């Protein structure tokens, strides 16, 4: 084993054996899974049932406002003052008041509808009630034009547009559909992972260098190996730690997720249950449920439509490229300072492009083939995140090639610069270093 | 003893505007103990780092056994820096193995040699301890072992005794002498001049990036002789002084109760015999010895001298 191999081995083993690594390896997937599962679970447990009273002087609602799992409509026949008094004392959440107008013009009436409540009404509730009333007004207007009410209801239920987008340059034989929602999600997750990995492990490189410097072991080691070897050994060793952690996370997350899907989701949408729903609902009330089930079954198909053979190697490439680029800069910073507290002034300017590309990810998601997206995926400081965001969408081959080559050129340049700063920095103690000073070190022989 | 193991020829090094070394020449003879001396910031550490190939000189040549110094020589050099340390969270044994392998020892050989040294220094129980559990002195011992483990031909010790209590410092001094006896060449950088006289065969004195003095310790001390002597005698000090003629300069006189003592310099071409002839009639001589300047005095006078010269120029 070469000397650089020995260094990589030490950097890798000491980190992998640490308690914090083991804890993070176990906690990471739990956290990721929690991000997926907790909102679902919270939404379920947080369903406080809200009673909404309706005082309808016009009769347009016809008692047809649809209650859902957490909003229940009840109808009143009292006067408005009585109803308001009642609202103060009862457990009713809010009171909808639809006043009778001078004439029967519903378009005038709709502007006078009021919602009374003791406390601020949540936006969800307000929007839901508005939707319900709008639907009733629509129906009433259609009816007044002679359209059958039942017909309208059944049409409303059966209309549901969900377009498949199909890229033109795909060969027609593959009949590949192309899933914008899923691509967006995967792009966002990929970009975010790269962002966190670069920050997490870049900072580890920096702390490792500072540790060696403050421990004063660095001079002992560089009398045996070249400073550049020590720096690269550390960077590569930590990269391997990152890849190991990533791999373990993927495995554990997949295990947790599939367990969750098998126990909770499968039970809800088992084939038997679909059958049962179909048979027991001749009136079509179960149609929405069945739609949901079909959608879930299609998920497998949708996931398959993503080009994983491109995405996974690309993720590894952009993670490594971005990490090498930023990691070497972090190493340079670590070598230039005496302790963690002094790193601030250098860390911020270096991480600005990283934070910038994280912020720009939203823009890129909205227009993944636009000019901004294209240029940001060519600049090595932003390309790791931006390209990961773009990749689930169609990216032309030449763009990918240019982006990868420029990232390679980028990290070669930064490691070269970092190596020069590092060489001088690790032997420099008790000196407050400025940017000017760093520039001077670059010129030392 | 004639062929130097290591030679630096006209070595210069600058850091930006700071001149660290200016045309320095040194030659370290095989098997000798070579003292590299100088005040703080003189350029000693710069030179040592160049010998260890940690940094490269701007100009000048470095020869190891007559060949240009190159990375293959790393395994032939052992270095104990002044600023030293170990990975605090790493276990002692594991760490020694790591550092030994970095110096090019294979695993089995490293383990064998480590076992011997651990027994010798009574540190067998430390193998599985983390470095942070050791005292400073204990860690220094580990560091010493790591430095010499690969049995290099050239050993460089930068202030090796700092951080050791007197007992352990003596152990380390004996080990260094042992290594020297077994053929290792040693470069030894220190401020402690008494250890220079004790250990070093020859020295080089560096001040403000220039080498200002070098040679064998005995030669240098002779060269700096000032013909000063100390004499102890029984008799009247007044009659002793009057007996001296112009050929001698009385520097100091005192009475320790029992005997009189004087420090004096013999001037011009006069000899010790002349002195004796002059004073014997008036006193009874008890002891007489030459005062040879210590390395400490030589160090201070030469450094001050060159500083003054530089200030004038």
CATH class of the largest domain in chain B: Alpha Beta
Known CATH architecture of the largest domain in chain B: 3-Layer(aba) Sandwich
Biggest β-sheet strands, sense, barrel of chain A: 4 strands, mixed
Write out the strand line-up for the largest beta sheet of chain A, numbering strands in chain order: 2-1-3-4
Can you tell me the CATH topology of the largest domain in chain B? Rossmann fold
The fraction of residues in strands of chain B falls at 25-35%
- Work out the radius of gyration of chain A: 31 Å
Could you name the CATH homologous superfamily of the largest domain in chain B? P-loop containing nucleotide triphosphate hydrolases
Spatial gap, N to C terminus of chain A = 30 Å
Briefly note the structural class of the backbone of chain A. mainly alpha
Q: Helix count of chain A, per DSSP?
A: 17
Number of domains of chain A: 2
How would you classify the quaternary structure? heterodimer
Descriptive notes:
The complex is a heterodimer of chains A (445) and B (313). Chain A has 17 helices and four strands. Chain A is elongated and about 95 Å long. The two termini of chain A are 30 Å apart. Chain A has two domains: 49-158, D-Maltodextrin-Binding Protein, domain 2 (3-Layer(aba) Sandwich), CATH 3.40.190.10; 178-443, no CATH class. Helices cover 68% and strands 5% of the residues of chain A. Chain A has a four-stranded mixed β-sheet, with helices on one face. Chain A is mostly helical. In chain A, helix 12 (308-336) packs antiparallel against helix 13. The longest helix of chain A is centred in the middle third of the chain and has 42 residues, at 227-268. Chain B is an alpha/beta fold and 313 residues long. Chain B has two domains: 4-222, 3-Layer(aba) Sandwich (Rossmann fold), CATH 3.40.50.300; 226-290, Alpha-Beta Plaits (2-Layer Sandwich). Helix content of chain B is 35%, strand content 30%. Chain B has ten helices and 14 strands. Chain B has helices at residues 44-51, 92-102, 107-120, 136-148, 166-181, 193-199, 217-223, 237-243, 272-279, 295-312, and strands at residues 4-15, 18-29, 33-37, 59-64, 67-68, 77-80, 154-158, 185-189, 202-207, 210-216, 228-235, 248-255, 260-266, 283-290. In chain B, the strands form three sheets. Chain B has a six-stranded mixed β-sheet, sandwiched between helices. Chain B has a four-stranded antiparallel β-sheet with strand order 2-1-4-5, covered by helices on one side. Chain B has a four-stranded antiparallel β-sheet with strand order 12-13-11-14. In chain B, helix 2 crosses helix 3. The longest helix of chain B has 18 residues, at 295-312. The relative contact order of chain B is 0.13. The model of chain B has no long low-confidence stretch (mean pLDDT 88). Classes of the chains: A mainly alpha (445), B alpha/beta (313). At the A-B interface, helix 1, helix 7 and helix 8 of A face helix 2 of B.
């Amino acid at each position: 084993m070469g000397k650089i191999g020995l260094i990589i081995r030490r950097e890798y083993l000491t980190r992998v054996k640490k308690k914090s690594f083991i804890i993070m390896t176990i906690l990471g997937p739990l956290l990721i899974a929690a991000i997926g599962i907790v909102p679902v679970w919270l939404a379920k447990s947080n369903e406080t049932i809200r009673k909404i009273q309706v005082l309808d002087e016009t009769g347009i609602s016809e008692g047809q406002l649809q209650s859902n799992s957490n909003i229940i409509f009840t109808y009143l026949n009292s006067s408005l003052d009585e109803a308001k008094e009642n609202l103060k004392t009862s457990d009713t959440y809010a009171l909808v008041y639809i006043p009778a107008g001078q004439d029967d013009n519903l378009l005038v009436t709709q502007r006078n509808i009021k919602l009374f409540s003791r406390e601020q009404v949540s936006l969800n509730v307000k929007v839901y009630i508005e939707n319900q009333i709008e639907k009733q007004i629509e129906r009433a207007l259609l009816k007044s034009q002679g359209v059958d009410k039942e017909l309208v209801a059944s049409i409303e239920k059966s209309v549901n547009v969900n377009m498949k987008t199909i890229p033109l340059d795909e060969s027609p034989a593959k009949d590949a559909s192309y899933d914008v929602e899923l691509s967006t999600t995967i792009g966002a997750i990929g970009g975010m992972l790269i962002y966190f990995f670069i920050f997490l492990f870049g900072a580890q490189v920096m702390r490792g260098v500072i540790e060696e410097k403050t421990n004063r072991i660095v001079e002992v080691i560089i009398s045996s190996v070249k400073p550049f070897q020590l720096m690269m050994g550390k960077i590569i060793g930590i990269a391997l730690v990152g890849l190991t952690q990533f791999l373990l996370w993927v495995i554990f997350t997949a295990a947790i997720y599939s367990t969750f899907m098998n126990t909770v989701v499968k039970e809800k949408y088992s084939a038997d249950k679909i059958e049962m729903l179909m048979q027991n609902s001749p009136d079509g009330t179960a149609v929405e449920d069945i739609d949901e089930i079909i959608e879930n079954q299609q998920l497998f198909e949708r996931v398959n439509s993503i080009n994983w053979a491109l995405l996974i190697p690309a993720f590894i490439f952009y993670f490594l490229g971005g990490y090498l680029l930023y990691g070497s800069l972090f190493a340079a910073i670590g070598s230039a300072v005496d302790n963690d507290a002094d790193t601030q002034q250098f860390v911020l300017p270096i991480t600005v492009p990283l934070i910038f590309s994280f912020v720009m990810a939203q823009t890129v998601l909205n227009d993944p083939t636009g000019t901004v997206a294209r240029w940001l995926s060519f600049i090595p400081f932003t390309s790791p995140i931006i390209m990961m965001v773009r990749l689930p969408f169609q990216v032309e081959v030449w763009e990918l090639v240019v982006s990868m080559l420029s990232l390679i050129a980028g990290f070669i340049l930064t490691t070269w610069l970092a190596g020069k700063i590092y060489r001088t920095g690790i032997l420099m103690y008790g000196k407050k270093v400025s940017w000017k000073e760093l520039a001077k070190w670059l010129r030392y022989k | 003893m004639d062929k130097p193991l290591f030679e630096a020829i006209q070595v210069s090094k600058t850091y930006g505007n700071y001149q660290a070394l200016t045309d320095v020449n040194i030659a370290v003879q095989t098997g000798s103990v070579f003292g590299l001396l100088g005040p703080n910031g003189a350029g000693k550490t710069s030179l040592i780092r160049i010998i260890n190939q940690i940094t490269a000189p701007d100009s000048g040549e470095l020869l190891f056994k007559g060949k240009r110094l190159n990375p293959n020589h790393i395994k032939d050099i052992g270095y104990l820096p002044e600023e030293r340390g170990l990975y605090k969270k790493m276990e002692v044994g594991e760490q020694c193995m790591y550092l030994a392998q970095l110096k090019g020892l294979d695993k089995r050989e490293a383990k064998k040699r480590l076992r011997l040294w651990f027994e010798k220094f009574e540190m067998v129980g430390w193998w599985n301890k983390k470095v942070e559990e050791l005292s400073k002195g204990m860690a220094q011992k580990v560091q010493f072992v790591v430095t010499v483990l690969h049995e290099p031909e050239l050993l460089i010790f930068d202030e090796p005794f700092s951080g050791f209590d007197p007992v352990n410092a003596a152990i380390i001094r004996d080990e260094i002498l042992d290594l020297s006896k077994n053929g290792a060449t040693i470069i030894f950088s220190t401020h402690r001049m008494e250890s220079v006289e004790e250990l070093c065969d020859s020295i080089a004195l560096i001040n403000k990036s220039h080498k200002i003095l070098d040679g064998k310790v005995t030669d240098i001390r002779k060269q700096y002789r000032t013909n000063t002597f100390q004499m102890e005698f029984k008799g009247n000090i007044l009659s002793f002084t009057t007996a001296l003629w112009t050929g001698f300069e009385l520097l100091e006189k005192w009475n320790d109760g029992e005997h009189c003592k004087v420090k004096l310099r013999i001037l011009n071409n006069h000899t010790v015999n002349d002195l004796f002839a002059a004073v014997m009639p008036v006193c009874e001589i008890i002891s007489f010895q030459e005062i040879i300047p210590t390395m400490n005095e030589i160090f201070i006078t030469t450094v001050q001298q060159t500083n003054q010269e530089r200030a004038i120029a």
